[in-house]
Design brief:
The complex is a heterodimer of chains A (424) and B (282). Chain A is globular, with a radius of gyration of 24 Å. The longest helix of chain A is centred in the middle third of the chain and has 32 residues, at 187-218. By secondary structure, chain A is an all-alpha fold. Chain A folds into two domains: 31-220 and 227-286, Cytochrome Bc1 Complex, Chain C (Up-down Bundle); 287-419, Helix Hairpins (Orthogonal Bundle). Chain A has helices at 12-20, 23-31, 46-65, 72-84, 89-117, 125-147, 152-163, 172-180, 187-218, 231-234, 238-263, 293-301, 305-320, 322-325, 337-358, 363-390, 400-410; strands at residues 35-37, 235-237. Chain A starts with 11 loop residues before the first helix and ends in a 14-residue tail after the last helix. Chain B has 282 residues and is mainly alpha-helical. Chain B has a domain at 25-73 and 140-260: Cytochrome Bc1 Complex, Chain D, domain 2 (Orthogonal Bundle), CATH 1.10.760. Chain B has helices at 2-20, 52-64, 90-98, 130-136, 148-151, 160-167, 172-182, 229-244, 248-277, and strands at residues 101-104, 113-116, 198-199, 207-208. The longest helix of chain B has 30 residues, at 248-277. The chains are: A mainly alpha (424), B mainly alpha (282). The interface between A and B is large, with 64 and 60 residues. Chain A: InterPro entries: Cyt_b/b6_C, Cyt_b/b6_C_sf, Cyt_b/b6_N, Cytb/b6-like_sf, Cytochrome_b, Cytochrome_b_C_euk/bac, Cytochrome_b_N_euk/bac, Di-haem_cyt_TM. Chain A: Heme b b566 binds at residues 110, 211. Chain A: The main subunits of complex b-c1 are: cytochrome b, cytochrome c1 and the Rieske protein.
Chain lengths: 424, 282
């Protein structure tokens, strides 16, 4: 899909530079001339929002790192120093902490978009798998970042999650002590988590580069799930069409983000994390941040430690196999009425698992968690493969241009013979 | 299909359980299913600000009553003069600091020595270390006050926790602390008090080591505010909120400016987007 660039450098300096490092041409072909299906909806703006959030987290994180010290006896105090004495330190800290939640809200919408419209299907399998890798890196980064303030939840959440690796047969205990740098979560753990928390976002940035490259090579999916037949009739150039739409969506997202930063900055956190870490006092309820709750519920559903760990990681790894588990030849749920219903049931189950992850693992909560966990895997491993074989999809439009025209006609507008400048 | 009908049954069961089964096992406040009442605070809501008079009264309560046992290690005497706080003058803050002896040193002979406090010192802790604090308080450690108003909360069930995001409720801590201070009562007949503990309606488990810290008329207010436990509790809770979030005033003020800017910007971008896309079928 790239290679549509018509960039010809004007001026001697521009030509000199372009013949040595064709970066301006690359930007032109990726972000100016790059053809984008004209039927995209706002679900497609979350890629740009995510890129923005990654930059936001890196910038705010680097500034925080200038004032933070990853040493147990002072870490909590340093965060308070940032909140009280560093100029606008409170703002940078709240941007970074709430930014992590915003990052995950955006990534979940982005992933559910992919699942709904079949964006993981051929030829976008590698694109999807790169996305799963980015998601795993994000989870690792977020986990380690939450440990850094060294509050009660930081310490005990780290203890619970790192202890999971002891479930590995034979080498588990050794691996966990190697991870900890000791015989329990302590100062070495905090220090290395800080180092890795600084490193991983740059690995995310690298995989995001591959992700965008894979995307641009095959082109965007679209809400109708149709291939691009004619660049002239089906697409518009990225600039100005997608640029302005992404910018608008980003600003709306910033309004949502700012609501949290300025008015309810501690809403998504846990009050126990304002208690300094105390290895001798366990909180009554250890819960991770909200974006891990569904997987926490899955982990606790299985009565066996190793089984729970395998189920939790399996719940993420199964996503990587989605392109092959879904056997339907039709991409978009718009034309798959049965799949659409199962999709929304899956969304309810995922959100339900999130709620269950926040509750104590007792009584009725355990029973429902087990049912929902079973359903989660049944959705991927049984329902999706069978749906493709038995479902009767709705007839697909001939092309994106036809789908757009049909939508216009349905809306009561006069059917345009030919669209405007973009089609010639 | 059987999978779906049993699923709907499970979802219904989950909601029933969520409603009925919110056990009082939460370590957060609200023992015996007692939820703290939500008071109206001057610093609540999008245009909330601290009331300097209330903060000064709260500081007086903290200084005369609470500081005997509770430390406030992140409170510096200079904080008392900063914007958005109790608005003491520099002279007043210096005088307060001067009332305390701070350990400093070592001097050139290698000795530690005592000297009067300065603006750059933090609030002196009443005990030299945690063990001394426990020994003086029957084995219980009086928690540090600096972020205590953010370190306490109480269980808000469904759908409260969703509406709280819209009404900007962030005062869980101060509502809980106020409730705790006014929640001392005689133990009901069916409760057996452990030795050394007192009954409190809002403390998790209902048995708290801290004896009732304050009674009516204990602290003298010079501005005419009522000298009741309820007033003392409100004032010291507000002061604790300020200690925990000293920049709240500017956070909400800047937040308003940012929201207006972003809303105007999004409006402009929306119409620009419409204009650009007007020639294209989509």
């Amino acid at each position: 899909m790239e290679g549509h660039s018509t960039y010809q450098p004007k001026g001697k300096v521009a030509q000199w530079f372009e013949s040595r490092l064709p970066i301006v041409g690359l930007i032109h072909s990726s972000a100016v001339a790059y053809p984008v299906p004209k039927n995209l909806n706002y679900m497609w703006t979350f890629g740009a929002i995510l890129t923005f959030m990654l930059v936001c987290q890196i910038v705010s994180g680097v500034v925080l790192a200038m004032h933070y010290v990853a040493y147990g006896p002072v870490a909590f105090a340093r965060v308070e120093h940032i909140m009280r004495d560093v100029s606008y330190g409170w703002l940078i800290r709240y941007i970074h902490a709430n930014g992590a939640s915003m990052f995950f809200i955006a990534v979940y919408i982005h992933m559910f978009r992919g699942m709904y419209y079949g964006s993981y299907k051929a030829p976008r399998e590698v694109l999807w798998i790169l996305g799963v890798i980015i998601y795993l890196l994000m989870m690792a980064t977020g986990f380690m970042g939450y440990v850094l303030p060294w509050g009660q939840m930081s310490f005990w959440g780290a203890t619970v999650i790192t202890n999971l690796f002891s479930a590995i047969p034979w080498v588990g205990e050794t691996i966990v002590q190697w991870l900890w740098g000791g015989y329990s979560v302590g100062d070495p753990t905090l220090n290395r988590f800080f180092s890795l928390h600084y490193l991983l976002p740059f690995m995310i940035a690298g995989v995001v580069g591959l992700h965008i490259w894979a995307l641009h090579h095959v082109g965007q999916n679209n809400p109708d799930g149709l291939d691009i037949k004619s660049v002239a009739k089906d697409t518009v150039p990225f600039t100005p069409y997608a640029t302005i739409k992404d910018t608008f969506a980003m600003v709306v997202f910033l309004i949502f983000f700012s609501w949290f930063i300025f008015y309810i900055p501690n809403y998504l956190g846990h009050s126990d994390n304002y208690i300094p870490a105390n290895p001798l006092s366990t909180p009554a309820h250890i819960v991770p941040e909200w974006y891990y709750l569904p997987f926490y519920a899955i982990l606790r559903s299985i009565p066996d430690k190793l089984g729970g760990v395998l189920a939790m990681f399996g719940a993420i790894v199964v996503l990587a196999f989605l392109p092959w588990l879904d056997t339907s030849k039709v991409r978009s749920a718009k034309y798959r009425p049965l799949f659409r219903q199962f999709f929304w049931v899956f969304v309810v189950v995922a959100v339900g698992l999130g709620y269950l992850g926040s509750q104590p693992a007792e009584g009725g909560y355990v029973i429902v968690s087990r049912i929902f966990t079973a359903y989660y895997f049944i959705h991927f491993l049984i329902i999706l493969p069978l749906l493709g074989l038995f479902e009767r999809p709705k007839p697909l439009p001939a092309s994106i241009a036809d789908a757009v025209l049909a939508k216009g006609a349905k809306g009561g507008a006069a059917v345009a013979g030919a669209a405007g400048p973009g089609t010639h | 299909m059987t999978i779906r009908s049993s699923l709907f049954g499970a979802v219904a069961a989950a909601f029933l359980l969520a409603g009925a089964g919110a056990p009082a096992l939460a370590a957060e406040g609200g023992g015996h299913d007692n939820r703290p009442h939500r008071l109206s605070w001057s610093f609540a809501g999008p245009f909330g600000m601290y009331d300097p008079a209330q903060l000064q009264r709260g500081f007086k309560v903290f200084k005369e009553v609470c500081a005997a046992c509770h430390s406030a290690n992140y409170l510096y005497f200079r904080n008392l003069t900063q914007e958005g706080g109790p608005r003491f003058t520099e002279a007043q803050a210096k005088q307060v600091a001067g009332e305390y002896q701070i350990t400093d040193g070592p001097n050139d002979s290698g000795d530690m020595f005592q000297r009067p406090g300065r603006l750059s010192d933090h609030w002196p802790a009443p005990f030299p270390n945690d063990n001394a604090a426990r020994a003086a308080n029957g084995g219980a450690l009086p928690p540090d006050f600096s972020v205590l108003a953010k370190a306490r909360s109480y269980h808000v069930g469904f759908p409260g926790f969703i509406t709280d995001a819209f009404i900007q409720y962030q005062e869980h801590g101060v509502d809980y602390i106020h409730a705790l201070l006014t929640g001392y009562a005689d133990a009901p007949a069916d409760v057996h008090l452990q030795p050394g503990l007192q009954y409190n309606k809002y403390f998790p488990g209902n048995q708290i080591a801290m004896p009732k810290p304050i009674s009516d008329g204990q602290v003298e207010y010079t501005d005419g505010a009522p000298q009741t436990v309820d007033q003392y509790a409100s004032d010291v809770s507000a002061f604790m909120m300020w200690m925990a979030e000293p920049h709240l005033d500017s956070r909400k003020r800047i937040g308003f400016q940012v929201m207006i800017f972003l809303i105007v910007l999004s409006g402009l971008l929306y119409f620009t987007k419409k204009k650009i896309w007007s020639k294209v079928d989509h």
